[in-house]
Amino acid sequence: MTPEPTQHSTADPALDWAGWLERHGGKLFYFAVHWHAEDPEDALQHAVVQTARAVAEGRCEADETAALRYAYTALRTRLYRAHERCEHRRAGETAWGREQVLLTSTDSTEEECRRVEAALAQLPPQEAEIVVLHLWENMSFIEIGGLLDLNRNTVSARYRRALESIRHHLKNIPE
Predict the structure, then answer these.
(1) Angstrom distance (rounded) from CA 144 to CA 136
(2) pTM higher than 0.85 for the full model?
(3) For the chain, how are helix, strand and coil distributed in percent, rounded to 5?
């Protein structure tokens, strides 16, 4: 009789999906929302199912970090394709009609958070995702580059450009 593997065993092909979703689901959802997705819940569900299948089929390592990287990649791919379809369909339209996710900070007022969120919403999704991953996920430019298959310098340049756009937006909106 073989011993039953634990959840933390590297030989165990199964992850504690409920715990994994509890730890990472909110971050993945926030990532999806900043892509201006029409249905971020659907995109997230698709990415999680795709990740679980990849782990079960051995295409992704059965550890939390590898599964999270795979999920971000699957989610980004799904969102990018959906974004491209929307852009084609809505040529020139800039308001996507999604609910705003209010940023929370102990040092900022609710109004300041709304202003920053509005500025972030004006960014192209490729820049917004880098800001979200760097500031809210505390990922380095190298980690983001690995996740998005970009050079670290490209990530850094997009991040600087995004921050400059946010600064410009915040200067030009009335308080």
Answers:
(1) 12
(2) no
(3) 65, 0, 35
How far is CA 3 from each of CA 9, 12, 15, 67, rounded to the nearest angstrom? 12, 11, 17, 25
pLDDT digits (tens, 9 = 90+) for 70-106: 999 999 888 888 767 666 554 433 332 333 333 344 4
**Which residue carries 């600064």 as its tokens?**
167
Judged by DSSP in three states, 149 sits in: coil
Do the beta carbons of residue 73 and residue 147 sit within 8 Å? Answer: yes
Q: Decide if 43 contacts 53 (C-beta within 8 A).
A: no
Annotate 65-121 with DSSP letters as a single string.
Answer: HHHHHHHHHHHHHHHHHHHHHHHHHTTT-----PPPPPP--TTS-HHHHHHHHHHHH
Q: Using CA atoms, how far apart are residues 41 and 44, in angstroms rounded to an integer?
A: 5
Paired tokens of 29: 């959802």
> b or e along 37-48 (b: 16 or more beta carbons within 10 Å of the residue's beta carbon)?
beebeebbebbb
